[in-house]
Amino acid sequence: MAPSLVLTGARVVLPGGVVDDGRVSVEGTRITATAAESARTVDLTGHWVLPGFVDIHNHGGGGASFSGTAEDILQAVHTHRTHGTTTLVASTVTDETDLLATQAGLLSELAEQGEIAGIHFEGPFISPCRKGAHSEELLRDPDPAEVRKLIDAARGKAKMVTLATELPGGVDSVRLLAEHGVIAAIGHTDATYEQTVEAIDAGATVATHLFNAMPPVGHRSPGPIAALLEDERVTVELINDGTHLHPAALELAFHHAGASRVAFITDAMDAAGAGDGRYLLGPLEVEVSEGVARLVHGGSIAGSTLTLDRAFRRAVTIDRLSVEDAVTALSVTPARLLGLSDRIGSLEPGKDADLVVFDADFVLKGVMRRGEWVVVPPQLA
Ligand SMILES: [Zn+2]
């Protein structure tokens, strides 16, 4: 059992706002209202303490992917944990249904063990016009029976399926997912504004990396982006790495949707936390150069090498978001989407002791997950 701790002196982001010289007490795996008498005090003056980050769209990191072995999966999970992601949904990429079903079985075991929070299937039910880094020959129309097969293979651990809802079977698949409590996410789509509204009305609630892999806004054809931004029922994912989005596009999304409807994601691939070089994204070869991942053939951006600590630093330094809005998009909103707000997403008594410590320059200095330090702050080392 981890010892009791009281973190003092830091600026703490609580549900009601930022508290200067705040206190966070931890007992075992949980945050508590008051500290035990035996608790060790850690002075974090000049630092920030924030709830642990939640990533709902992530393909890998540390040189390993969620399409790999159990060892690979743990490697990727651990890499992202050391960058502040205390809750992570593992994303697959387009492949044969049987292979995806087998991988879902493996991922569901790691979800049972509490290593990941569930599975996100990205593809194969996406548009060939907006395929990004997915194998075109493996793409197919959304067939509710096939969607059902995947969520069954995930044994209750399927959290989200990204699909191009304008394709034949798309809207029926959205209904099926909604009935099963799985998030239907609109993405890699060529839908019109009207088709997008239809999918939202059928139960789709997430925009997969808004702006990327979908038609841009036109004044006579506003397309999916306008429909996804204007509807209160939709949460939009954003990849805040400086490559996928112009800062003004990010600002537009925050202006229209507000932080409570934005989830920052990494969409990371193997190279996140690992460095430049050649990698595989599913069956496709990717070259990572200066942190930007592109397909060897065609040059499409192929996921990111982002980690959420960098997304946070960028949000508050370059994008000029408030720390509170950044935390909402990194922790609060994705925790709510996953239906885990009773356990994670904010620093409140009774919740899991998942938290991150940043210094005044927004450099990550500590990560605690369920009461255990993953990254030990220098004050404790
Ligand atoms: Zn992705």
Automatic annotation (TrEMBL):
Binds 1 divalent metal cation per subunit. The keyword Amino-acid biosynthesis does not apply. InterPro entries: Amidohydro-rel, GlcNAc_6-P_deAcase, Metal-dep_hydrolase_composite, Metal_Hydrolase. Keywords: Carbohydrate metabolism, Hydrolase, Metal-binding. This is N-acetylglucosamine-6-phosphate deacetylase. Transmembrane segments: none annotated. It catalyses: N-acetyl-D-glucosamine 6-phosphate + H2O = D-glucosamine 6-phosphate + acetate. NCBIfam families: nagA. The active site is at 267 (proton donor/acceptor). Pathway: Amino-sugar metabolism; N-acetylneuraminate degradation; D-fructose 6-phosphate from N-acetylneuraminate: step 4/5. Substrate binds at residues 133, 212-213, 220, 244, 301-303. The keyword Nucleotide-binding does not apply. Its EC number is 3.5.1.25.
